[in-house]
Amino acid sequence: MNSLLGQHILSVEQFDRDTITHIFSVADQMLPYAKREKRTTVLNGAILGNLFFEPSTRTRVSFGTAFNLLGGFVRETTGIGTSALAKGESLYDTARVLSGYSDIIAMRHPDSGSVNEFSNGSRVPVVNGGDGANEHPTQALLDLYTIRKELNSHDSDLDGMHIAMIGDLRHGRTVHSLSKLLCLFKNIHFTLISPAELTMPDSVLDVITNAGHQFRITDSLEGQFDADICYQTRIQEERFPSQEEANKYRGKFRLDQEIYTRHFKSKTVIMHPLPRDSRADANELDNDLNANPNLAIFRQTDNGVLVRMALFALILGVENKLKQYEHNVPWYAAHKD
Ligand code: CP
User: Fold this and answer.
1) Most CB contacts within 10 A, which of 124, 128, 204, 316?
2) Which domain does 127 fall in, by range?
3) At residue 336, does pLDDT exceed 90?
4) Are both 166 and 230 inside the same structural domain?
């Protein structure tokens, strides 16, 4: 098992199975705090620098929420245009400066490799919140945590599972990171459904093949998919050279209740990293699935807080001190489900 104490989290490639099991066991311990049944101030006085140089809702806010739930403070920078990067400052200099103001930094940036480059200048641990089309390691961890929970509730397991990934597999960093993480398990079967121009990159297919797993590539959502997990994704329009180019693919792989019933098992778990594109010409995950108990998308977002709390606790070395700094919650807490 790799210790995460003081470490950067840049790629899923730094995890092994034992480390993941440990992260998930710490995440399980975070549930009473995330549900506001108890409060812990174990990170009292610590500062998270939350740097989001690309749009985000759930990653940015759940990093901040996770840090606050551990008793820490959050300082945010959002958008390149409002930072000195717009004046030509390098990522290295930005990192040297901001790591003087923070105990840990979470960062998202539109360029592949940028968070790695930033970490070279940082004096504190850096967590990758998504770097271009490259990786999104904390999303992959929360996805895997969710998959494990959902499968366990069906008396099933990660080893031997079948996942269907749908949509923009070329630019979708969440499917790149999740695929690599799944390769740590045994006998995974991948069905990769995308337009021919948006197939999974060879670098990820090589990881799948070298780890001895099976994959099938198709550009059509035809027939029956014997998948345990259906992982839908958005066309990553921000990665295309023009909006017109991205529009060619929007709405190609819609999923609604009727299509789900036709192609998937009655127990297939439906996932999506979100945001889902709900505009009429895309509508990749229809609202009529909201009543489907197998729709796990909001369980994913809730689990993201637990996993990010666990990472902060492990990186800052307080995972065994949560109860020591525990308090009762005197106010009405609605977060019970
Ligand atoms: N899943 C995800 O990364 O969502 P945001 O872009 O809202 O952070």
Assistant:
1) 128
2) 12-135+304-328
3) no
4) yes
Number of domains in the chain: 2
Cβ neighbors of 83 (< 8 A, separation 6 or more) are 51, 53, 77, 89, 94
Q: What is the pTM of this model?
A: 0.96
Whether residue 14 has its Cβ less than 6 Å from ligand 1: no
The CA distance from 5 to 167, in Å, is 36
Average pLDDT score, the chain: 96
Catalytic residue chosen out of the listed positions 58, 96, 189, 213: 58
Residue 230, beta-bridge partner list: 164, 270
Partnered with residue 104 across adjacent β-strands are 48
87 in catalytic set: yes
Render pLDDT for 250-285 as a digit per residue (tens, 0 to 9): 999 999 999 999 999 999 999 999 999 999 999 999
pLDDT digits (tens, 9 = 90+) for 60-79: 999 999 999 999 999 999 99
End-to-end C-alpha distance for the chain, whole angstroms: 32
Q: Please state the rounded mean pLDDT for residues 31-51.
A: 97
Residue 11 in contact with ligand 1 by CB distance below 6 A: no
Does residue 259 form part of some domain?
yes
Whether 144 and 278 map to the same domain: the answer is yes
C-alpha distance from residue 238 to each of 20, 73, 196, 218 (Å): 31, 31, 19, 24
